[in-house]
Amino acid sequence: MTATEPGHTRDSRDSRDSAAPKHLTIRCQFCDTWNRVDAARAADRPKCGKCGKPMLLDRPLKLDDETFARTIAEAQVPVLVDFYADWCGPCKMMAPFVDELAREKQGLALIAKLDTDRAQRTAQQFDIRGIPTTIVFNGGKEVARQSGAMPKPGLEALLARA
Question: Over the stretch 80-97, which tens digit does the pLDDT of each residue have?
Fold first, then answer.
């Protein structure tokens, strides 16, 4: 239940939950170890618990078929995923806006990218018919979707729907 659903109000349990630290579960891009990261400290360049290398959350997190489900399901902040392909012109035009959003939303949201050519199973699971397609997830569930390239204000508006 959220405060925005008509006819529903927040109870004391809801306010406790909102004050609790929010975490991300992401896989280290260097050693493939899963790490639980405090979202509020994302800008502090947290380090992998195994290899000690930085978890680079000031840029879009690259997801694939292996990492997608767990990353989305365990994120306690909204996740915006850019479904793209390297050869796609509109995807390349939108990429700088996705990069800016990742820098600006550290700790508030996780910004990720999924290459539909390399992660065909996940792209098919979400019925991606055209690229770029941007999907926002919250609580592990899809809450907003937009196909086609869009400017940064469009990405921000989509993320705000989480």
Answer: 999 999 999 999 999 999
